[in-house]
Amino acid sequence: MRKRVIAAAVAAAAAGGIAVALVWSRRSARRWERAERIVQELREGCHTPVTRLWEVADAMASEMRAGLSSDGGSSLRMLVTPLESLPTGNEEGLFYGLEINQTTIRMLCVQLGGMDARVIKKHLAEVPVPSNLMVGTSEDLYDFIAAELSKFISAEELSYNIQDRRPKEIGVTFSFPVIQNLASNGTIIEWTNGFSIKETGEKDAAAEINKALEKHGVDMHVSFLVNDTVGAFGGARYCSSDTMAAVTLGMGTNAAYMEPLHAIPKWQGPHPMQGVMIINMEWGNFQSSHFPITEFDVQIDAESPKPGGKVFEKLISGMYLGDIVRRVLLKMAEETALFGDTVPLKLRIPFVLRTPDVASMHQDLSQDLSLVGEKLEECLGIPNTTVRMRQLVVEVCDIVAKRGARLAGAAIVGILKKLKRDGTDKKSVVMVEGALYEHYRLFRAYLHDGVKMMLHGRNLDNVIIEHSGDGCVIGAALLAASKSGHATNS
Ligand code: BGC
């Protein structure tokens, strides 16, 4: 009797176990189904077929025209930079460049040897900007810059054995929009990219830096100040006179190019360079009804310090790609409990997942995606992930990066179209600088693929999009060199 009771109890327990296992596996299947549906919706929302890419390129070309006609007439600022000259390759002497970007200042000293010798020697130093200075006053920031430049120059003078006693000239680039009526002065109209400087009134940044240099006893003068992408354009022209545009794809994004004066009806100022002007497009502000926008982009925009601003930058730049991916994963965690019954706390922290981490996960070539597993744990506090979960995460990274890269490519085609270079027999070079393009191989590949598809059958070989290694800081020094007039007559 006792034996029969035990047997019955064991049978009941086994049946219960099976029932629990069945419920569990049904719940797990539902979770996966739901998670996969979220990815599918994301894929559809981010879809960028060639027809849509052309719509974006056409919109870019017409926004450019509108922005050149009047200020405020377009989502693109199309700021005119009245440079007096562009580097030709003939420049000779020792020149300095300074770049103020998202997190660091980069100082460059370059010795140029004219057309044959070109860059004889160069030295670059990078110093992080203390975080308190990024949100302090411009005076404190320029003081810091002057002090760092003073150290840099003393070290350089020793190493180059400098005999030249002429006052040193420096070209400065900022990763912010600058309004100027001369290349030697400029007012920063918006401190972006992590800076939030308290500025009283409109100040000429070049004059302010010169004041700080004098205060620190530095025998140096800011000969001009431009936006970083304009600086990159100057550097790119030194490398190839076929350069039509320079593009920055980093934390922030932008494009600059050369426009004939007659195509800029809004410009009333001086026109120092023969018949052409450099335009800082501020393309991060580009807006078009053709953008594939998802609920995640809407959230990012609504929670940003400037909703409605920098719409294009929020879709394509290094500042935002990581956070778009994080938001998709958060939705999965909340709605499918894919990463456990409680949502990992870190997953709720905005910008905790950075684009370089997305790039590492996306480009993980290991069989079991072990790097994805490590990154999920380290950056988002999601431990013990299975290979299937990691594959889903990689897919999210792929969709987000692919959309950004193809839109960036479409915008480049838009510029070429505006310049009537989207299929001619003339060679057109577009130089791209910035860590997103340089270090995110798959992003770069998607950008190139998109452009190739768009320009298929239209003299594609004449459109060359390539990486400009030295970026804007050498551009700053080269622009200073071209302005100084120290050139050989070759
Ligand atoms: C800024 C531009 C800058 C770009 C690249 C954007 O956020 O508005 O002025 O050129 O980032 O650094």
UniProtKB/TrEMBL annotation:
Domain of life where this protein originates: Eukaryota
GO molecular function: ATP binding; D-glucose binding; hexokinase activity
Location of the Hexokinase C-terminal domain: 245-481
Domain Hexokinase N-terminal: 39-236
First and last residue of the signal peptide: none
UniProt name for this protein: Phosphotransferase
EC number: 2.7.1.-
Pathway: Carbohydrate degradation; Carbohydrate metabolism; hexose metabolism
The keyword Endoplasmic reticulum belongs to this UniProt entry's keyword annotation: no
Keywords, alphabetical: ATP-binding, Glycolysis, Kinase, Nucleotide-binding, Transferase
Native source organism of the sequence: Phoenix dactylifera
GO terms for cellular component: cytosol; mitochondrion
Annotated gene: LOC103705431
Listed SUPFAM superfamilies: Actin-like ATPase domain
